[in-house]
């Protein structure tokens, strides 16, 4: 806790600003001098590295609301659905009646693409109220399996004191300063497309946590009726508050579900998949999402570099006039529920088909908890490469990484499962070729 307070100081000499951009990182020598700890565990592997970053921003929630969300693992996952895929409390060590809390937790974080490996942490989370307007949350890894005695880390990721300080600034808002500080040994698991993002701490860095927290706090306020924007995608379409709440709940579940399946741990190589390359992933799992059908769900995913900014790619797919140019499968008598978002860290477009009868039920305010969804979508991020000449362009280069994933249910009562597998593979190949053609066209346009 004391270490976090020092790291959060504005003029702390331990922080060094990158000469190429505004990214701040911890100076290792200064850190070791100021926070010496004989019991601290380091990974001695030559491939291990440190990641550290700090960022701040105004969040439209009070400090106590944020702390309540941080201490509940379900709310924690819902607050960061595009980052945290699993979380649970292992043991509560101190309740403190909201004056503070200490608990042992587990979380799995994963974002962007199956080409990026997930990270698992067992850690102690400590929350304390510093004064009437300031709270602090600190996470630090804990060796649950007593592997320190063997001199080995329990995972590829180890969390040094990380977390945030929350200062209420009135009118339901808080200033949140976030710190991420980890030692990891997972670069060999990362596809080369994402190496630059990793090296600049953009994938799991503090800015991504802050930006996501801001977006989800606004969404939370909207869902409970605390705010109602004058201009919103639902305006003029839904007027019943229950219908609006239903759509938002299903949409959030859709986004969370899609981000969870992106890890694609149970990968398969179909006999017909000889054309799959290092960017393609195919996985299969037993159907637990579509409650009325037995069978398996196939997920196919590919990532590709595009010589365009992520804003341009997002606008291309968001625009209903240009989006049909890539081939997108659809079914008759189905509506599409879609959520899209763009911020400085990247963008996503996630959608799922919903039949007309279910849609009507949702809009009328019926219970939406049992509505089955099978989402597909696009994740778009900057490629993390800096412009070679900062005098010409101060921003990140105009390249982006597009990850496309789609899912299909293969019913157990269908006698032509092998035929469906073949069709799925062909569908995946067609969509991948479409995106590659888009990339080639974009590159030619830039050259001209």
UniProtKB/TrEMBL annotation:
InterPro entries in UniProt: HD-Zip_IV (IPR042160), HD-Zip_IV_C (IPR057993), START-like_dom_sf (IPR023393), START_lipid-bd_dom (IPR002913)
CDD domains reported in the protein's UniProt record: START_ArGLABRA2_like
Domain START stretches: 1-222
DNA-binding among keywords: yes
Stretch forming the signal peptide: none
Highest taxon of source: Eukaryota
Aminoacyl-tRNA synthetase among keywords: no
UniProt keyword terms in alphabetical order: DNA-binding, Homeobox, Nucleus, Transcription, Transcription regulation
Pfam families: PDF2_C, START
Record PANTHER family: HOMEOBOX-LEUCINE ZIPPER PROTEIN HDG10-RELATED, HOMEOBOX-LEUCINE ZIPPER PROTEIN MERISTEM L1
Protein's name in the database: START domain-containing protein
Organism of this sequence: Datura stramonium
């Amino acid at each position: 806790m004391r270490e976090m307070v020092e790291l959060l100081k504005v003029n702390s000499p331990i922080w060094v600003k990158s000469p190429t951009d505004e990214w701040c990182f911890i100076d290792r020598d200064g850190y070791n001098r100021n926070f010496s700890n004989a019991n601290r565990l380091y990974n001695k592997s030559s491939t291990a590295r440190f990641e550290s970053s700090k960022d701040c921003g105004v969040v439209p929630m009070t400090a106590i609301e944020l702390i309540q969300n941080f201490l509940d693992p379900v709310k924690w996952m819902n607050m960061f659905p595009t980052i945290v895929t699993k979380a649970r409390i292992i043991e509560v060590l101190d309740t403190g009646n909201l004056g503070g809390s200490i608990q042992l937790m587990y979380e799995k974080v994963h974002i962007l693409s199956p080409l990026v490996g997930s990270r698992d942490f067992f850690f102690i989370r400590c929350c304390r109220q510093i004064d009437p307007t300031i709270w602090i949350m600190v996470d630090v890894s804990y060796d649950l399996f007593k592997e320190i005695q063997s001199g080995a880390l329990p995972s590829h990721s180890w969390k040094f004191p990380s977390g945030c300080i929350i200062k209420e600034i009135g009118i339901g808002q808080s200033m949140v300063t976030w710190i991420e500080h980890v030692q990891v040994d997972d670069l060999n698991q990362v596809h080369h497309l994402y190496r630059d993002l990793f090296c600049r701490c953009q994938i799991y860095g503090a800015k991504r946590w802050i930006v996501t927290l801001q977006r989800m706090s606004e969404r939370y306020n909207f869902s409970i009726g605390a705010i109602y924007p004058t201009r919103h995608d639902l305006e003029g379409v839904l007027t019943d508050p229950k219908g609006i709440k239903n759509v938002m709940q299903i949409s959030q579940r859709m986004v969370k579900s899609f981000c969870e399946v992106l890890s694609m741990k149970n990968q398969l190589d179909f006999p017909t998949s000889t054309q799959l390359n290092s960017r393609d992933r195919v996985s299969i799992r037993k159907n637990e999402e579509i409650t009325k059908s037995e069978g398996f769900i196939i997920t196919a995913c590919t990532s590709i570099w595009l010589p365009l900014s992520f804003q341009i790619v997002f606008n291309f797919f968001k625009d209903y006039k240009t989006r049909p140019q890539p081939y997108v499968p659809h079914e008759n008598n189905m509506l599409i529920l879609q959520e899209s978002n763009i911020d400085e860290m990247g963008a996503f477009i996630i959608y799922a088909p919903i039949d007309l009868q279910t849609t009507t039920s949702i809009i009328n305010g019926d219970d939406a908890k049992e509505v089955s969804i099978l989402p597909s979508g696009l994740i778009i991020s900057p490629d993390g490469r800096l412009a070679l000449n900062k005098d010409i362009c101060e921003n990140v280069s105009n390249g982006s990484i597009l990850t496309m994933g789609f899912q299909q249910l293969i019913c157990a009562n269908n006698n032509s499962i092998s035929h469906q597998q073949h069709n799925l593979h062909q569908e995946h190949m067609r969509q991948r070729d479409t995106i590659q053609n888009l990339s080639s066209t974009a590159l030619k346009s830039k050259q001209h």
